[in-house]
Amino acid sequence: MKIVASDYIDTVRYPISIHGPARTALIDDLNSSIVKDGCVVLKGFLRAERIDELVHECDRVEMHGHRNFTRTNPYFTQDRPDLPTSHPLRRFYDRSNAFVPADNFGPESILRAIFDWPAFSPFIKQVLDEEKFFPYADPLADVTVNLAEAGNGFPWHFDTNNYTVTLAIQNAEAGGNFEYSPRVRSTIAENYDIVEKVLDDDRSLIHTLRLEPGDLQIFKGRYSLHRVTPLLGSRKRYVAIFSYVEESGMVSSPQRAKELYGRVLPIHLERAGMRSDALID
Question: What's the order of all strands across the beta sheet hosting 93-100?
Fold first, then answer.
């Protein structure tokens, strides 16, 4: 049976496929929030009665998640011994990732149906007000699920891409709050002094969100410092990631694909100018 994305989305509350005053007003409202602090949450984007189906989809494929453990600063850069130990570039935190690659979400996937729904991407593009906006062409990375377990979380960091689109599917029993400090750096200033205050837990600079299953989050994370607090309990946290980029046809580097998804495909090697039989450590 063909999956119909609009059967899963609350299209009464979010009329994203019907061009008219209601859709325009919705986009204007969401865009205002993005402009204000780089984040907006569409509460109850998924119909509550269909969320269990998304959980079951994640349960079926979670064993294919690739886990990696690293220690990184908020910028994903190397240590700078020439700087004071309190400097943000020298503040390193344990980071654990587990991603279910996109090729586990085929034609029978609800998540794939939402991502491919003709109304979805244009809506996200208008909310973000981005001119350069394309679905990620990487066959391992366009639709993924991040899974996290007790003790996991994402320490403070800036994203390497301009925006993320995520769908909360299942929360852990406790923890897992999304915390962010909007626009603490810019294209012309890193503002390390403000970053340091956030890392030192200055709560006056930090916004906290409790995302519930079915919530869609659109977030500009390149300039807003953010984290997910550690998880507690035996239940896994599932978050779907719908990936968009600024260049058509873009894919991961071989090294990045290996790190995040545990595999490298011929397209990664070809785009990097490498032989198809090249080994990636």
Answer: 39-42, 216-219, 164-170, 237-242, 143-148, 93-100, 66-72
Domain ranges of the chain: 5-250
Q: Which of 79, 101, 105 is nearest to 90 (CA)?
A: 79
Look at strands 154-157 and 164-170 and give their pairing: unpaired
CATH class of 5-250: mainly beta
Alpha helices, DSSP H only, in the chain?
21-37, 51-61, 110-116, 120-128, 192-199, 254-261, 266-271
Q: Is 276 exposed, middle or buried (0-12, 13-18, 19+ CB in 10 A)?
A: exposed
Taking 3-state DSSP, the helix, strand and coil percentages for the chain, each rounded to the nearest 5, stand at: 30, 25, 45
Q: How many other β-carbons are positioned within 10 Å of the β-carbon of residue 80?
A: 12
Q: H-helix or E-strand containing 167?
A: strand 164-170
257 with 250: CB under 8 angstroms? no
How remote is the C-alpha of 33 from its chain's centroid?
Answer: 18
Encode pLDDT of 241-252 as tens digits.
Answer: 999 999 999 999
Quick check: 197 pLDDT over 90? yes
pTM: 0.94
The pLDDT of 184-196, averaged and rounded, is 96
Widest distance between CA atoms in the chain: 61
Structure tokens at 174: 């406790």
